[in-house]
Amino acid sequence: MDEIRLNVALLRRKVPNLTTAAKSIGIRPATVSNLCTGKIDLGKAEVRTLVGLASLANCSVDELIIRGEKLNMIETKIKTLDFFAPLVKEGTTGLIARPGMGQVVILAELMHRFKKSNYTTVFLLPTTEYSVLEGTIELADYVTKSIEETFKRLSAISGDIIFITDKSYIVSGEILDLQEKLLAESINNITTILLDLSGEVVDEEMPYGPLETVWQLDVDLATRHLYPAVHPLYSTSSIIEGVDLDQRHFNLRQRAQKLLRRYRELRSIVTVHGKDKIRDTDLETYKRGIRLEAYFTQPFFVAEEVTGQEGKEVTMEQTLKDVEYILEGKADDLSIKELMFKGSLA
To answer: Which of 16, 50, 67 is the last residue of a domain?
Structure first.
């Protein structure tokens, strides 16, 4: 049987306000979001849900389903992003965070890393000025100030593009107009990253519309200064499901999430009552969970002057080896300090 997935790009173009539209016909926005990112297997989706989405997009169910087309990931060499929620090439990624949780630093680091790659970064400035962007937008290859200027710039670049912009252009509908114009010109070499510096996205069910990847930041990790504070359970990508992801990666991700989910439950007990209240059978899970959590911290190149730590890159293959090493208990003798803000274990 062919692997199938939702045609997220078509849905994004055809239904500008998907959250409201989905609710109007009795489909939960969370269901749509989970279908887009792959949390819900499209093959297990209710027929009425697919029919409803097709009606909203004014297309057939067959047009809404992509069969046998493999998604590709862009390797960032940021461990937690590549492992839990890979960046989908030519897809759309949304950053969900409150102010001060590190989303701007993640964007700055990505732009820094892409300068050494074949990707060209274009940053469309938000409609509102934000002082937090000072020193960050300069890392982009090109900075634009309007949709019209952005279209001209994107049209002139022949190679792969990372396009970054703010939610305000989604609210106004201008991003949809831009995507339509790019589609009409057969320009499809663009990977989009969306952010919302106001932090309002945290309280919305589907703030950016359909997404291939969600990077949700975690207030608990940010409070404890465990950066990048990417939530390992809520961050996800449509590339995770099916044949789009290496089976070893898929299995390790499931094992890691299961461990971290239980670790978080145990940590809440330890925080209040101490380790003595944990059963002996759970103590091993707790110890490995805290080590895995520490491993996913990573020093960034753009933060070297602030942290005094040299930035690190870790390939996906090495990350898989390291996570397997920790899950199998081979890092049990390593201290948390030996794992915190390091690169690889090799």
So the answer is: 67
Total domains in the fold of the chain: 3
DSSP conformation letters of 199-222: -GGGG-SSTTSS-SEEEEB-HHHH
Q: Do 201 and 116 share a structural domain? A: yes
**Residue 311 has what DSSP assignment?**
-
pLDDT single digits (tens) 207-263: 888 899 999 999 999 999 999 999 999 999 987 754 457 889 999 999 999 999 999
Q: Looking at the domain assignment, is residue 99 inside a domain?
A: yes
φ, ψ of residue 100 to 5 degrees: the values are 85, 5
Residues counted in the chain: 346
One domain for residues 101 and 198: yes
pLDDT at 81 over 80: yes
List beta partners, residue 87: 74
Helix (H) or strand (E) holding 87: strand 87-88
- Residues 6 or more apart whose CB falls under 8 angstroms from that of 284 comprise 329
For residue 322, being part of any structural domain is answered with: yes
* CA distance to 38, 103, 137, 147, 236, per residue, from 122 (Å): 27, 17, 9, 12, 24
CB-count exposure of residue 154 (10 Å: 0-12, 13-18, 19+): buried
Task: Look at the block and give the residue holding tokens 């047009």.
Answer: 63
Q: Where are the beta strands (DSSP E) in 117-255?
A: 120-124, 142-144, 161-166, 190-195, 213-216, 236-237
Residue 241 has a pLDDT of: 58
34 found inside a domain? yes
pLDDT in tens, 248-274: 999 999 999 999 999 999 998 888 888
What is the reported pTM?
Answer: 0.88
Report residue 1's pLDDT band, with 50, 70 and 90 as the boundaries: very low
Whether residue 28 is contained in a domain is answered as: yes
Query: CATH no. for residue 40?
Result: 1.10.260
Domain boundary among 167, 192, 211: 211
Q: At what angle do helices 147-156 and 174-184 cross, to 10 degrees?
A: 30
Residues of the domain holding 42: 4-67
